[in-house]
Amino acid sequence: MAVLPILRFPDQRLHTVAKPVDAFDDSLRRLVSDMAETMYAAPGIGLAATQVDAHVRVIVIDISETKDQLQVFVNPELVSASDDRKVCEEGCLSVPGFYENVERPDRVRVRARDEHGQEFTLEAEGLLAVCIQHEMDHLKGRVFVQYLSRLKQYRIRAKLLKQDREAA
Ligand code: GNR
Ligand code: NI
């Protein structure tokens, strides 16, 4: 197990489109395990492989208080989304320190496989629905700041680049 480095916006690698997983093997299970450790260490409630510079369709989520309810989604596909939408204040481990409202469908149905290749379908609402959609966006190369105004995106980009310069 290893804690992996997390790419920070505006790193262009965050805009890579992830490829489907084709082998449910030990290397996939190692990635899932490292992603879980990285998410728990951060700490965060979700992580997409894109964020650790692995451009395959893998997501880990744990929204439990007790941090012992890991959910793994390999090759997730959106089956349906509700017409009703909800606003939630979102944050992202790749955009540290920024929290902004994003509106998304309130409920989603997702089909995916676990790390052993077992297929399942899940209906999610509330925070889990938000998190699944946020992570599936990462797999498409999309970061939540892209839902904000150009001005907000520009300010977030400038502040994070300044922090990177000062840390260097
Ligand atoms: O830890 C996270 N919290 C969070 C809060 C509200 C909406 C989405 C999220 S996901 C985020 C972890 C992350 O960046 N996943 O990609
Ligand atoms: Ni994120």
What is the 3D shape?
A: globular
* Secondary-structure class: alpha+beta
**Biggest β-sheet description:** 5 strands, antiparallel
List the strand order in the largest sheet: 1-2-3-6-7
**Share in helix:** 25-40%
Bound molecules: ligand GNR, nickel (II) ion
Distinct helical segment count: 3
Average pLDDT, to the nearest integer? Answer: 98
- Our measurement of the CA-to-CA distance between the termini, rounded to an integer number of angstroms, reads 28 Å
What's the short version?
The chain is of the alpha+beta class and 168 residues long. It is 29% helix and 26% strand.
State the main characteristics.
single chain, binds nickel (II) ion, 7 strands, alpha+beta, five-stranded antiparallel β-sheet, two-stranded antiparallel sheet, binds ligand GNR
Question: Layout of SSEs?
Answer:
Blueprint: H1 26-41, E1 46-48, E2 58-61, E3 71-81, E4 85-90, E5 100-105, E6 107-113, E7 119-125, H2 126-139, H3 150-167
Antiparallel strand pairs: 1-2, 2-3, 3-6, 4-5, 6-7
What does this structure look like?
This protein has 168 residues and is of the alpha+beta class. It has helices at residues 26-41, 126-139, 150-167; strands at residues 46-48, 58-61, 71-81, 85-90, 100-105, 107-113, 119-125. The strands form two sheets. The protein has a five-stranded antiparallel sheet. Strand 6 (107-113) and strand 7 (119-125) form a beta hairpin. The longest helix is centred in the last third of the chain and has 18 residues, at 150-167. It is globular. The mean pLDDT is 98. The site of nickel (II) ion (NI) has 5 residues, from helix 2. Nickel (II) ion (NI) binds next to helix 2.
